[in-house]
Amino acid sequence: MIAQPDTATASRKSTRQLPFTSVAGRMLLVLTNGPADQSFLGNPLLPILIRRMPEAHRRRFVLRLLSISPHYFTEIGSDRYPPPMPMRDVLELELARNVLSRRQLADEVIAPFLNPGSRVLDFGSGIGILASHMADRCAQVTGVDISCGAIACGRVLFPKPNLGFVAVARGQLVGVADQCMDLVTAIAVMQHMDDVALASTLQEIHRVLVPGGMALCHVPLAESLVATPKATQHQDRRNPVTRLLQRRYGLLMLYRDRAQIEAMFQNAGFVIESSGSIGERAEIEDDIAHQHLFVLKRA
Ligand SMILES: C[S@@+](CC[C@H](N)C(=O)[O-])C[C@H]1O[C@@H](n2cnc3c(N)ncnc32)[C@H](O)[C@@H]1O
To answer: For the chain, which domains are there?
Structure first.
């Protein structure tokens, strides 16, 4: 079932890019970006800055930082938070909104794939909200992300003894041994990766899974775009300079069709066990409810 966009959601989304349209906002994006495309908050100085920040200010600083990434606090500037509301409250409410949707995902969709002994890798974990919920249900979770700044924020917000983080380096899951994971999750990340990056990542996911291990991959299919208002299509940008800037400083959004993504999963050696709308599995207050989850098994 494909959900139709509702006008309330559409109007909220129309302001989601607000922090990046001002000159100052764009400069911040450039300064906080890391060396790789799409590594928002990937500047290697950010983890050092966060570690040196006095503890009393650390959480607030981290939430402020997250507000300039296009990935997390996407409702700032929307009518969800009327203007007199102090930014400190808006940031905490945005974090709570993200925490709720990932808790629903962990409890209602991912829990059946977990057991107390599971070792899990969460690819594109960002600040580790989902990873932290999964860590409450299994032995060990490793969050992996391209952004060392996002990881540093996650270490502040979700410290847990069985939750670790690793930064992706040149597309490799460095330090993650072959066949050491029972489950890999990849939520809200594959649409931000071009075909080359995604193909090599799928090979890496295959490498780290035990034989028979499972991967749960969220994919916003091109066929379901009607359910994702305001989607920007990277391919629409014809000018090569604009394309370069978009890759580096804009959020890459690639919507693949079912045949394309299934071929990529199979080429990496996965068997597709099932696929369906996340909203059919659970009620989740997030865009991902209108999009698809592929359940893959390592052959
Ligand atoms: C929208 S956030 C999703 C975070 C988390 N999976 C969730 O659902 O809450 C997307 C994350 O993917 C990460 N990302 C984007 N491209 C990546 C890549 N090539 N390798 C690893 N992580 C990537 C971003 O840094 C960001 O933290």
So the answer is: 7-298 (3.40.50.150)
